[in-house]
Amino acid sequence: MLRSVGFAVCGAAAMVAVTAAHKQQATFKSTTALVEVDAVVLDKDGNFVPGLTAENITILENGKPQKIQQFFMVTNDVLPTEGSAKLQDPEQAQYNAHRVFVMLFDEGHLANDSLMRVKIGAEKFVREMFHEGDAGGVFLAGGMYRGRLTVDKGELLNGIRAVQPGFENRQALLTPFVEWPRIDSEISAARIADGAREVTDELGRKACQEDPVQCASEGGLGNVENLIQQKARLYVRQARMLTVRTLQNIESVAKGLAKIPGRKTVVFMSEGFYVEDSRSAIEQVAAQAARSGITIYSIDGRGNINGLSINPEVTKRERARSAAFDTGEDGPTILTAITGGFRVHGIDDMSLGFGRIVRDTSTYYVIGYQPDNATMDGKVRKIEIKSTLPNATIRSRKSYVAVALPPQEAIWGFGK
Questions:
Q1: Is 321 in contact with 302 (CB distance < 8 Å)?
Q2: Residue 203 in contact with residue 265, Cβ under 8 Å?
Q3: I need a labelling partner for 135 at 20 to 30 A (CA). Which of 71, 197, 199, 363 fits?
Q4: Which structural domain, as residue segments, surrounds residue 224?
């Protein structure tokens, strides 16, 4: 029997074709009232801990313990290998959990060399790690490629190849920071734009001490300070617009995936984005994604980063991209921490990052509860999970927005 589910992103209706499964399916018990939390539990050596029961776990919402109403493990590791989850009781797990991956290219925050790296890594992911039963999509230029999720590797590869550099990007906006008169960081630029006169005065004095001739040719200290203010205000204005666009894209993906039950993985490829004055908005977007069952993982496209030069020669590791003026990693950190994912950074082979993400999203526990506070009031609620196991580390979503989910449409059993 052929079934389909609508997937709306930026107004485009996306359809995922599905067929009846030929092997045991993961049975997700989602309802619009149930809050589901995916949890990755690791031992002191970083290995997944199998065999847990609900008695090993306490879940709190806004500090208050909640009654666990469902608890099961999901795994793609049907044939356990070294380092994978080994089950004492095979019946405790849901096997062959079909995974949903969305590759979100943050073009406005990817320089050309970064975009090249992540595209190569994404293509390798599709060829080698995207398996039968998985569904995926490529989000680029504000919408899903061909307006849909797909199980077709060829379509995913075409979507990745269609990604183009943004007309403006973050590194281009940061480049003037190193040009005279210098601005030492994004934080200084934000403070200047907010009227912190003492920062402008300090940077102006440094600029005129560094190059007295240039200072005189600009008409003196006062004019140099005006140049610094203009540069800072222009950067902040442009950076804010890029950040708004990025958050709108994440919101669109979350809305489109909300109807699909179970865990959805969004791989957010970015160099980071401007966060000064946007932190609460980022936290809200992340909490909404968490409510939709999305785990965000971030891959930093800059590769191996050092503090030597803002103009990299990307073919040489020792001259990799500088982060000296850039504090945008806070944005991806917030998104991943709240939704239960992690950041991948400091590597040049982006396929390694995809590999870490695939392993992490393939085996996890699902904890479901109906909140004691049943009113879906649209507020952000904090989630905390504790375990009775000694030395265990639990990574899960940290909050969610208390809104009712749309009706869930089971799409497990993807066919080609």
A1: yes
A2: no
A3: 71
A4: 170-232
Spatial distance between the Cα atoms of 107 and 144, rounded to a whole number of angstroms: 14
Whole-number pLDDT of residue 88? 41
Q: Where are the beta strands (DSSP E) in 196-314?
A: 264-270, 294-300
Residue linked to tokens 């990745």: 160
pTM of the model: 0.83
Task: State both tokens at 199.
Answer: 């920062």
Segment (H or E) for 221: helix 221-257
The β-bridge partners of 297 are 267
Asked if 247 and 216 sit in the same domain, the reply is no
Mean pLDDT across 337-359 = 94
Do residues 396 and 2 touch, judged by C-beta distance below 8 A?
no
β-pairing, 57-61 vs 64-65, is antiparallel
What separation in angstroms does the CA of 103 have from each of 207, 242, 415? Answer: 43, 19, 20
Question: Which of 206, 232, 258 is a domain's end point?
Answer: 232
**pLDDT, tens digit, 9 for 90 and up, residues 257-266:** 999 988 999 9
**Coil vs helix vs strand at 413:** coil
Question: Comparing C-alpha atoms, which of 44, 59, 55, 52 is closest to residue 74?
Answer: 52
Asked if residue 131 lies in contact with residue 78, where contact means CB atoms within 8 angstroms, the answer is no
**What tens digit of pLDDT does each residue of 136-158 get?**
999 999 999 999 999 999 999 99
**d(C-alpha 227, C-alpha 218), whole Å:** 9
CB atoms within 10 A of CB 361: 24
CA 329, CA 337: separation in Å to the nearest integer? 12
Q: What's the CA gap between 131 and 129, in Å, rounded?
A: 6
pLDDT tens per residue, range 19-49: 333 333 344 444 557 899 999 999 989 899 9
Same domain, 126 and 250: yes
Q: What is the mean pLDDT of the chain?
A: 83
Pair 112, 209 in one domain? no
At position 367, the amino acid (one-letter code) is I
Question: When comparing pLDDT for 210 and 410, which is higher?
Answer: 210
- Whether 125 and 299 have beta carbons less than 8 Å apart is answered as no
